[in-house]
Specification:
The complex is a heterodimer. By secondary structure, chain A is α+β, with helices and mostly antiparallel strands. Helix content of chain A is 47%, strand content 15%. Chain A has 13 helices and 10 strands. In chain A, helix 9 packs across helix 10 and helix 9 packs across helix 13. The N and C termini of chain A lie far apart (42 Å). By secondary structure, chain B is mostly helical. In chain B, 56% of the residues lie in helices and 8% in strands. Chain B has 7 helices and 2 strands. Chain B has a two-stranded antiparallel sheet. The longest helix of chain B is centred in the C-terminal third of the chain and has 31 residues. Chain B starts with 12 loop residues before the first strand and ends with a helix. Classes of the chains: A alpha+beta, B mainly alpha. Bound molecules: zinc ion (2 copies). The site of one zinc ion (ZN) has 8 residues of chain B, from loops.
């Protein structure tokens, strides 16, 4: 575990140039499913929740968890990043990377994150709860993700006791997480359902079974780049397995729905679709200045094009990576320093040209 | 169980609106309630800010005793409703009466059915499981799902069988005293 700033910033610059395993598009169903994420919210016995925790208490929580993690086999080589010590750009990098939440990046006081070497697992300390552990996998990987995070939770529990009530389960600061403390989120790329406006029906169908549909960066965010996150709402009254089954039941329908509509578009509107995708590719490979929003929108068309075999000069892993590398913080890290908006738009266009045209 | 008026999620907040001189209850989920308040705030932006806090007051209209304080962390139930965050694990005990309806509103249940810490003794686990299954049995009977009810009764009998020796030996020990 390392707590001084320097090695961290070295590591963060490396992060900006690589991409997390979850972007590899190596997982099942990765034409539609980008990633599967499971997070568990836990609090440590004998400490108040965050709203009542002084900096002193927050510090001792970081220390207590900082002792437990190296002593746990699964996490013994995890890297600690002191988020309180990071500058805004570095903290934002971790958010874009989905390794920490926005809330952790902007909150105050002693806090941090433990990150596994392959970025598959991250453990936030002093977010809304004392411990927020998450696993992020490429493609649809509900069962495998659950088994890994479940056994990590068990292993950590041998080192520290989590607040637990016989009737209410794991106790969390917000009543919406009480019980299992679990949030399972599957990130889907649904361009065809969005183009045909069928996406509304996905919202309705999901809500009927207590699942939420959100944009890329969670609560309240717009569906940028046609990415939608489907996740459970309820954490009390059903087991983790039941929640996973619930998702596993509904997802194949959404996936085959998206694929059916893609095929239909291909059959009935092929020239229009080809035109749209070629134009997207054209702008991305020739623009001299481009906003993040336009980039997301156009990359979404390219991603669809790759999946339909209409684009062959680039693969899904590369497109996934470009979605992340063109975000403001990654872009500035790759370019070597802070940039103003206009400079950022130019750097983004340059990065896209370099990576898409060969 | 009320659904949110705007998005069909479970409503967690209930606002009383005055429309044409009549009080109308508006049921909203957390996120829609926040939007609703923001819109209201914009509409009355010329009015003094008290209007918004008055609305927040109304949000906590459920007749909980907002002055009750957690003996462990000292936050009041009112403070919890304002922040939406509890102060410590003991809050769940201290505010149990007021929290239970809230939890049932959010989750449509107030009984944990998921994993348990491995270190808790087996017997406690079984006893808690018994409570859960009994609750599911009640639900099944309510739904007139007698097939499910029968299999749950069997499950209860199974668990009771494993618990009995322990209960027996305890009362034996009492008798010996
Ligand atoms: Zn709503
Ligand atoms: Zn408390």
């Amino acid at each position: 575990m390392n707590t001084d700033g320097e090695p961290n910033s070295v590591c963060l610059s490396d992060l900006a140039r690589t991409s997390g395993g979850w972007l590899a598009a190596s997982g099942p169903e990765s034409d539609v499913v980008v990633s599967t994420r499971i997070r568990l919210a836990r609090n440590i016995v004998g400490y108040p929740f965050m709203s009542q925790a002084s900096d002193e208490i927050r510090r001792s929580l970081v220390e207590a968890i900082g002792r437990a993690i190296p002593a746990t086999p699964q996490t013994s080589d995890f890297l600690f990043i002191d988020v309180g010590e990071l500058d805004a750009l570095d903290a934002q990098l971790l958010v874009e990377r989905q390794l920490i939440s926005r809330e952790l990046s902007i909150s105050e006081g002693p806090r941090g994150v433990f990150i596994g070497r392959d970025e598959q697992i991250s453990i936030m300390v002093n977010e809304e709860d004392h411990v927020r552990m998450q696993i992020l996998n490429s493609g649809l990987a509900l069962q495998e993700s659950w088994e890994t995070i479940d056994s990590l939770d068990d292993a950590l529990e041998e080192q520290i006791s989590f607040a637990f009530d016989e009737k209410l389960g794991y106790l969390t600061a917000c009543p919406t997480n009480v019980g299992t403390g679990i949030r399972v989120s599957v990130m889907l790329h649904l361009p065809a359902l969005r183009i045909t406006r069928e996406i509304q029906k996905v919202h309705q169908a999901a809500q009927k079974i207590n699942l939420a549909v959100r944009g890329l960066y969670g609560e309240g965010s717009q569906a940028m780049g046609d990415f939608y996150q489907i996740s459970n709402q309820v954490t009390l009254g059903c087991s983790e397995e039941e929640l996973l089954d619930n998702l596993a039941d509904v997802l194949p329908n959404i996936l085959s729905w998206e694929r059916r509509v893609r095929d239909l578009l291909c059959r009935d509107n092929k020239s229009q679709l080809e035109d749209q995708i070629s134009r997207a590719m054209g702008i991305l490979t020739s623009a001299r200045s481009i906003s993040s929003e336009e980039t997301m929108h156009l990359l979404s068309s390219v991603r669809l094009g790759v999946n339909l075999g209409l684009v062959s000069t680039v693969d899904i892993a590369k497109v996934n990576e470009l979605f992340i590398h063109t975000q403001p913080s990654h872009l500035q890290k790759i370019s070597g320093g802070p940039l103003k908006t206009t400079e950022r738009n130019e750097a983004r266009a340059r990065h896209l040209r370099d990576n898409l045209s060969d | 169980m009320k659904k949110c008026r705007r998005c069909a999620k479970s409503a967690t907040l209930h606002i009383t609106e005055i429309q044409d001189g009549k009080a109308v209850a508006v049921h909203l989920c957390n996120s829609c309630a926040q939007e609703y308040l923001d819109e209201e705030a914009e509409q009355v932006s010329s009015a003094p800010p008290e209007d918004v806090s008055a609305k927040l007051e109304e949000l906590m209209s459920e007749d909980a005793d907002t002055d009750t304080r957690c003996t462990n962390c000292n936050i009041s139930f009112g403070e919890f409703r304002e922040q939406g965050r509890l102060g410590c694990p003991t809050c769940f005990e201290e505010f149990r009466v007021d929290l239970m309806p809230l939890l049932e509103n959010i989750h449509e249940s107030a009984t944990h059915m998921g994993k348990r810490p491995k270190r808790s003794p087996a017997q406690t686990v079984d006893q808690a499981r018994l409570i859960q299954i009994r609750q599911r049995l009640e639900d099944a009977i309510d739904r007139e799902d007698y097939e499910q009810a029968a299999s749950l009764r069997d499950e209860i009998a199974e668990i009771e069988k494993t618990l009995r020796p322990a209960i027996q030996s305890e009362s034996d020990a009492d008798a010996a005293d």
